[in-house]
Amino acid sequence: MSMTSSVHGEQRRRILGEMLERDGSVALAKAAAELGVSEMTIRRDLADLEAAGLARRVRGGATRVVGPRSFRDRSAQRRSAKARIAQKALALVPETGAIAIDASTTAGALGSVLTKHSSLTVVTNSWDNVHSARRAGVGRAILTGGEMDDLTDSLVGPIACRSAASYGYRTVFAGANGVDASFGASDVSPEEAQVKVEFARAADDVVLLADSTKLGSRDLARSFAWDEVSVLVTELDPTDERLDELRSRVELR
């Protein structure tokens, strides 16, 4: 919704905050046009939001700063993007053998569409995702066990890691909270990242699933360097300029 006249600073920053919460990111030029102010004004507003810990500035705008959030809260965000990613990633799922899907809601979206994989074994460290895979009709859906992280609803810790490393996977499908061209893929905690690392050590390939709001940001703990990732799947067309920094580092889908 465009605004025909500019709004004062406090209201602008509130609106920008709402955009970040709703969409996960704010584009500088689009926000300036909608709020009827200059791009320089929006840059200053985003700097204020970053100083308040509510945004992370990236080229061309800003992304939402996201700490640990429950599975339910994360599921409500960017549903159409996750559905698009799941459909694209489906082409990379083997018909037989075993795969791992992590505790991300994006991987959960993939698990929910495995309706033609009745000979596939799926291992995950997410109670929600194991149920999604079972409902879809996979051959076997296995939960790692471990300690429940009350902030993210995922299973972490030594038991989860040992269980994750106990199977041989053809592919691990993993989400990320940050995707940075230099740093790689990252997550909200070392515990979250470590389970993904154990999945990957036992897998032939790592497929990273991330919507575009994660691009250009990094979180606390690195889960994968780019030489450990086979394919990055986003909701974007692989030719999208927002993927330019990653094009030489990883195959894009």
Automatic annotation (TrEMBL):
Domain HTH deoR-type stretches: 9-64
Keyword Hydrolase: no
Pfam families xref list: DeoRC, HTH_DeoR
GO molecular function: DNA binding; DNA-binding transcription factor activity
Keywords: DNA-binding, Transcription, Transcription regulation
SMART domains in the cross-refs: DeoRC, HTH_DEOR
Coiled coil: none
InterPro entries for this protein: ArsR-like_HTH, Carb_Metab_HTH_regulators, DeoR-like_C, DeoR_HTH, NagB/RpiA_transferase-like, Tscrpt_reg_HTH_DeoR_CS, WH-like_DNA-bd_sf, WH_DNA-bd_sf
UniProt key word Transport: no
Protein name (record): DeoR family transcriptional regulator
